[in-house]
Amino acid sequence: MPNRPPRTTTTRSRSALACALGIALLGLAIAGCEDDTAASGSGRRQSATRADLATDGDGGKTLRLGEPTSITYKSGSDHLRGALRVTAMSVRKGTHAELKKAGAEPSDVRTTQPYYVTMTFENVGESSLHYPFLNTPTGLEDTSGVDDQPLITGDTEVAACPGRDPDDFAVGAKVSLCKVFLVPNGIRPSVVTYSTGDDTKRPVSWKVKH
């Protein structure tokens, strides 16, 4: 009787081939799902990266008064990182009489001219900021390139330049704050600056019109 391969061997071979084919197809399907997931995740990561770049995209630039910019904000008592839309709205002359009325008149009254810088802030991030100190990073440079000194009023509120920060700055909230600067007589303000988060060396600036 001739030797023939057992039927079980052929059956097993076919079964093994079918299993291998099934595993290969399953592997391709899983790989496809993983690729889709990775692509989806990559899209999310790319979107987040673009948002992060847009957030601090105006660092080092000089904008026009009234032109908003979005920045990464890192401050406050809870040290949360947030996102703000910030706008330098106006720079106008104040008077020592207004400061005196508020009990905030400086000692160098004869050598300085007060200026009021008004800023607007909007919380466009995903977290509330507790004691955010929104106005603290606001600065003013004069035409000689010097950073002018802010008038520290503490709890004193200058009626013509209200600048008390909110205790809590909720998501979507918007507030307008004013800050007093003392500019030496005969020199004019030139640029409003705002620097916070990771851009303290590259502040956003707004050109002051005269």
TrEMBL record:
Q: Which domain of life is it from?
A: Bacteria
- Name used for this protein in its record: DUF4352 domain-containing protein
Species whose genome carries this gene: Streptomyces niphimycinicus
Which UniProt keywords are listed? Signal
What does UniProt give as the signal peptide span? 1-31
Chain positions covered by the region annotation Disordered: 36-70
Question: Which stretches are tagged as biased composition: Polar residues?
Answer: 39-49
